[in-house]
Design a protein that fits this description.
- The structure holds two protein chains of two kinds.
- By secondary structure, chain A is an all-alpha fold.
- The radius of gyration of chain A is 25 Å and the shape is globular.
- In chain A, 46% of the residues are buried.
- Chain B is an alpha/beta fold.
- Helices cover 28% and strands 22% of the residues of chain B.
- Chain B contains six helices and ten strands.
- In chain B, the strands form two sheets. In chain B, strands 6-7-8-3-9-10 form a six-stranded mixed sheet, sandwiched between helices. A four-stranded antiparallel sheet of chain B has the order 2-1-4-5, with helices on one face.
- Chain B is globular, with a radius of gyration of 18 Å.
- The chains are: A mainly alpha, B alpha/beta.
Chain lengths: 572, 235
Amino acid sequence: MPVVKVFGPLLLALIAALPIGAALWAVGAQMLHAAAWQALWADPQTWRAWGMTLWTGLASTALAWITVAHVLASGFIRQQLGRWLSHLPALLATPHAAMAIGLVLWLSPSGWALRLVSPGLTGFDAPPPWFTTQDPWGLGLILALWLKEVPFLLWVAATQMQREDLRRRWQAEYALAQTLGRTPAQAFAQIIWPQLAPRLRWPLLAVLAYGLTVVDMALIIGPASPPTLAVLAWQWLSDADLLTQSQGVAAAGWLTGTVLVAGVLMVVALRVVASKRPFASRGKRPQSQASDRDGLLSQKTPTWLLHFCRRLPPQPNAMWTIILTAYIAVWSALTVGSVSGVWPFPQVWPELWTLNAWQQVASSAHTVWTTLGLGVASASVCVLWSVAWLELTPRRWQQALQPWFLLPLVLPSVLWVVGLYSLALHTRLEGQWLGLSLAHAVMVLPYVLLALVPAYQAVDPRQAALVASLGHGRSVYMWRVKWPLLQRAIASAWAVGFAVSVAQYLPTLYVGAGRFATVTTEAVTLAAGAQRSLMSAYAALQMLLPIAAFALAAWLGRPRRFEKIAPMKATS
Amino acid sequence: MTDTPQDGLHVHIERLGSAHHALVSGLRLAVPPGEILTLMGPSGCGKSSVLAAIAGTLASVSEGLQPLQLQGSVQLNGRELAHLPTHQRGVGLVFQDALLFPHMTVAENLLFAVPVSDVSGTRSTHAQRQARVQQALQEAELSGMGNRDPSTLSGGQRARVALMRALLAEPQALLLDEPFSKLDAALRAQLRPWVFAHVRERRIPVVLVTHDEQDVADPQRVLHLRAAEESPHHV
């Protein structure tokens, strides 16, 4: 019995840790190539690309963090958070590439934004030669990243704030703080936010890493000359020349170092901010309300946060409205774009509506099937693994090993694909469906785990004791109480995993050795060309598939409907 | 039925605690069938841990801390329980929160506890089990509310369902862990005699943990636990 108890978790740990470790090892070995590093330093593009990477990554992360704090504060204070966040799955299901393509459809010189005001306001009869997309300042990329990362952070925050135990405690503490004379804004900033922010540290790190290393989005809407370092690394990696390839590996390594340093700096910065919190020092008691109505406390609270909290517009939250509007705009651009035929410039609506693009998509149905197959396989494997892991392993193991499993979240995908590809080469799985789905699973795992852990932490241990005291064994507890109660969390973790798999671009191309086309690879590839309708159709599909998965998950995890008040049913 | 000396619950805790710290040591308690022993003491003295040791649920109370271990014996009607898993002990538990399963109706919560086969091993039909649920609902003064969502019940109703659920599993001993502490004074005063009458009716030993003197079921049977360092003693 004890052998099984140790062996099971050990096996599970190895299953997940080995591919990650082996991939890192493989990429590490390739990095010991002095000529590659020299070529990297000597290349005039490197430093400018790196600068662009830092600018876009840091700016989008900072913006996202401030926005999330703002939305959470105003949502919590107005008790509207649950309602606002009910739109979240649709936003989350919109893949990065689809978002970027949708923005391009709006912002490009021939995009909807200019069409709406032309020629009336602008006098343009032809698209102006503007850099409104792929702008050399990276603003489009920052906008796209910001729009995508805010819902992600909000979703992680929601998984915490909607945990029954935390929700109750925080509501009580928030009310208590107000009885001690704090305004609602102060109560949130001093009581809730300091408890919530540390829980968002890992996800924020993931956002930072993503912003610094994103490739598919940067290919579509990012600056082109120079591009970001991740795009440059990707271009080098796909070069035929071996030295250029290893220069790409070196660039991936440099990018990884950048992410690590930036991540450490960010954590330190957050700690410093947190340590300046009002009641952090030991033994100091909260100031009494009389001496503190508006003075000391507001100085000790992060001023930008208080500033936001004070200036809450009446209804609804402006920032959240902007984000929702942007998503709706993107969705409608994709929809209209995918059925547009001839569409001369200043006209707001296409001259010709056609389903050609969708017919083309239907005629290459295998692309859709590949996408579905990869998503279902990798999400299911990850959910099964995560449930087994959370059920079988002691808490201590879980805490110790979690950072390791979350690595794919924070290390650049250009780095992973190199490692996963050499791993696939060694195991002869390169260009194989199995190898590709395993590569997807490595990228999907951290998201599934992150989605499931809070639900597992919220399980009341007394429930197991209670079921056992009623004379039922462990399996009855699992099948009839624990898992039914976790059904919603498990279903949505699966949908998240599916969505992450659908959105994979680099692993699909690289580990699949170019043999597998998914809706994402098609959409990104088409974004470079001129087939607006086909590109829009694939981008829309890239979004519809995850939305279908989320809808399925919502249906599977729907709460039970009880009869309100009814006479007792006779035996059924 | 005549009581023999080994009938009832006999607990001898030589040492209960983590590797470094003994929470309770040298504690003996004996509860004859149909009697209610009240276990009292300040918070943190190990009252709930004693119940967990009897029920075999130490793993769930030690969450996040050092795991607690029991040295000693727990005997119920002459049967040694200390090495049995909880579900084979025949010891019922009621917590301060009713802990009704939120995904089941009130009746389903109760049905969950009704054994599939009776003492002699014959399987009960679904109708027989449903009949017991109906009877329990009546005893809890909740007839006709079986199909309700448990979260729509009042605190007192929930507490009654929780007790009925524990009793439907036909435990041979029952442990009540501060069962009244989340209710208001009026409700407590109402619920106490109801609970005590129902558990006495079953002729099983009962241990009640509380820190409210008013909860004491039987002034003859009260055990005060002191804080960890000192040894416990009878009053």
